[in-house]
Amino acid sequence: MIKLETKHAFLKENVKDYQESVDRLHQQLMNKECLGNDYVGWVEWPNTYDQEEFARIKQTAARMREMCDVFVVCGIGGSYLGARAAIEMINGLYANKKPEIIFIGNTFSSTYIAQVMEYIKDKEVCVNVISKSGTTTETSLAFRLLKQFMDEKYKEQAKERIVATTDKARGVLKAVADQEGYETFVIPDDIGGRYSVITPVGLLPIAVAGIDIDAIMSGLKKAYEDLADSDLDHNAAYAYAVCRRILQNQGYDVEMLVSYELQMSMIAEWWKQLFGESEGKEGKGILPDSATFSTDLHSLGQFVQEGKKVLFETILMIDRPTQDITFPSDAQNLDQMNYLSGKSVDWVNKMAAQGTLEAHVNTGGVPNLILTLKDMSAESFGYMCYFFFRACAMTVLLLDVNPFNQPGVEVYKKNMFRLLGKN
Ligand code: PA5
């Protein structure tokens, strides 16, 4: 379901030379003996997820879909990005479906928060507040505003419209949910935020958006099976992980994830969190960047083509578009576009990709890795998540870094709390 092609001429080391290290780290990951082994619950998740809870997610989603025009998801980082990425990828950017899914709790921007509150004021609203720690300030600030709004609007019924996804026992959010009688879903202890889209964190909002979460789990399982063998000739996720390391050894410190689909741009944000938070430690790591082509060929394309040679591109191609359009003929041809008459717009997109590849690789000397995903379906989303989870864990373990913590994100919080006067 995901194929990797590399422009081998750029790789100065042989991918297979890493086989021994990859086999060792694969064993450690599967046996929960790797660095950060407290957070590898996602590895076996396709086989171990709680079926009862999964059924309850579907029931709750159906209930929420009946009740609201707007479903407000309140969370940040791993408690936000995956759900939004999935919904945009699978449903598209103008799905015009009910309920509309809106995100808050992911910023301190007063303008954004005020505008969301204004937007939902006269609509039927349900809320999903998501926080593993239950103490994240962006989320807590927005949720207090939302809670007061819901209590005022729905009085006693507010609790029927609010769902909390949090730790099974710890944290302020758990205490609030218990006290108020909200329905709750559990974020497993051994799955970190950026790996949590495959748990209720992502699955509830995704199901409320009308997406088939059974298909996501079946994609996840398929990837688990396809990636069981650590042989670099067969395991595309590990081969991708190794290519990144080789390219960084050659001095490429930036990876640009490129898609030719605008509805994949939040996937790139999710991917940036996954790789950036996992790898950027101890003065090591590749900076994850992203672009959407051909849109950004009219901006960043110039840098990629002729700028400083710091980056390689990973092209995430979609084999089959969700929809296609045949370009019409025009009798007058005033715009001189008849050379495309009868052609599919996706074909034009693919030709743009091919032309760009030649320009960046052959003329620009920019290494390109190409990952091809079958389509933008729910099943492909599940497959892709698991593919990137495994690739990310392997590429970071190859650096001898713990892929599952994020100690650096605490520094800004400490300073902010001091400035805010928090005890
Ligand atoms: O990857 C992570 O763990 C983080 O990005 C968290 O997801 C993010 O900080 C939100 O944390 P929480 O779910 O505890 O509110």
TrEMBL record:
<feature type="coiled-coil region">
    <location>
        <begin position="1"/>
        <end position="35"/>
    </location>
</feature>
<dbReference type="InterPro" id="IPR035476">
    <property type="entry name" value="SIS_PGI_1"/>
</dbReference>
<dbReference type="InterPro" id="IPR035482">
    <property type="entry name" value="SIS_PGI_2"/>
</dbReference>
<dbReference type="Pfam" id="PF00342">
    <property type="entry name" value="PGI"/>
</dbReference>
<protein>
    <recommendedName>
        <fullName>Glucose-6-phosphate isomerase</fullName>
        <ecNumber>5.3.1.9</ecNumber>
    </recommendedName>
</protein>
<keyword id="KW-0312">Gluconeogenesis</keyword>
<feature type="active site">
    <location>
        <position position="413"/>
    </location>
</feature>
<comment type="pathway">
    <text>Carbohydrate biosynthesis; gluconeogenesis.</text>
</comment>
<dbReference type="InterPro" id="IPR001672">
    <property type="entry name" value="G6P_Isomerase"/>
</dbReference>
<comment type="pathway">
    <text>Carbohydrate degradation; glycolysis; D-glyceraldehyde 3-phosphate and glycerone phosphate from D-glucose: step 2/4.</text>
</comment>
<keyword id="KW-0413">Isomerase</keyword>
<feature type="active site" description="Proton donor">
    <location>
        <position position="277"/>
    </location>
</feature>
<dbReference type="InterPro" id="IPR046348">
    <property type="entry name" value="SIS_dom_sf"/>
</dbReference>
<comment type="similarity">
    <text>Belongs to the GPI family.</text>
</comment>
<comment type="function">
    <text>Catalyzes the reversible isomerization of glucose-6-phosphate to fructose-6-phosphate.</text>
</comment>
<dbReference type="GO" id="GO:0004347">
    <property type="term" value="F:glucose-6-phosphate isomerase activity"/>
</dbReference>
<keyword id="KW-0175">Coiled coil</keyword>
<keyword id="KW-0963">Cytoplasm</keyword>
<keyword id="KW-0324">Glycolysis</keyword>
<dbReference type="InterPro" id="IPR018189">
    <property type="entry name" value="Phosphoglucose_isomerase_CS"/>
</dbReference>
